[in-house]
Amino acid sequence: MGLGLASYCTRSAAAATTARAKSCILIWLDGGPSHLETLDPKPEASREVRGPFGSIATSVPGIHVSELMPRTAAAMQHSVVIRSMTSPLGEHNFGTHYLLTGFKPTPALNYPAIGSVVSHLQPQIGDIPAHVAIPDMRVGGGKFVAPGYLPGGVAPFEVGGDPAKPDFRVRDLEMFPGIVDERLEQRRRYLDRLNGAQHAAETAAPSDPAFEQAYRLMTSPAAKRAFNLADESPGTKRRYGDRSIGQCCLLARRLVEAGVPFVTVNNRGWDTHNDLVTRLKEGYTGAKVPVGLVPALDMAYSALITDLHERRLLDDTLVVVMGEFGRTPKLNTQAGRDHWPRVFSVMLAGAGIPGGQVIGASDSMGESPIERPVTPADLAATIYQLLGIDPQHTLYTSDGRPVQVSHDGTPLKELVG
Asked: Where is this region: Disordered (predicted)?
């Protein structure tokens, strides 16, 4: 019956700082985007460093981005770019773990993703799980386990389909053929009777909360509305673009509008070891309408920020754009760039943070941070604080070991005040 959703039942309240945002949309650029071809161009560097693209001015004097991002440039007054992110981990799985959890990976303990911590600590509103991944959470080579040491119930609900495809559907919102609402209700009542028989000597709730959560999601009109992109106008859909990342961001907006605390948009393909021009700008000719990764991101991000602003949701929503690391300062022999964690860029918007600023700087080649180094732990602590979660809040592993949400990260004062 699609009741694998039953794991979305475990929630616990937490004392928190004052929240600046009610929700977070994380746009994850899986594979590691090039900072030099996006948010930290080096137009004065040699050709082998600056790459095949130029830079353009933005709506904020003194800030330039890649020429492939004109829409983002026009909305830079809403955004903050961190150009001094730094990590020692240049392997996909390790880098992904560090960025998504704020902790360096260790064999001793598997740490939870930020979204899973939010799901664990923040109350769920309505029938939709507190963390949704679009289309899925298969990141870092598919080895990342989002719940970490937390209960499996805080794993993200994976939509499972591409919203850009005409046959898009959320599989686990639909019952198998032949399973109608009445039959599902019969099964629910039967489970209630089984629970009642099993716990006859106890004063327990009459129904299993896991089944109840799954039942509510599958039968919820509000959940079906939130996931229904057919309710959006053709003009709105065009604004976001017809690529996967655009329609995923549109769905993410609908979900935060419905009260979902954390949405991860997982956009693959950023491991650009070869042919930057095709992969980042032109797109593959086999596509119906070839669009490169950066123009698709540019269209989706700018549409999301503008849409949230117009709907008066931007101050209540934190938007984060990042991947696991950057790319090498020099082009390789295949006209691409390899892994480079020493310095890279992240972009944020919303949550009442003062837009139109750059935090930190890389050197003239985009090789190392030379001003205000920021670690993934610092970024995680910042995200937690903006969402009203004390970075020093203590969680517990299954064997009772206390672990702080962010043990060595310092929230960025430029963003949290």
From this structure: 398-417
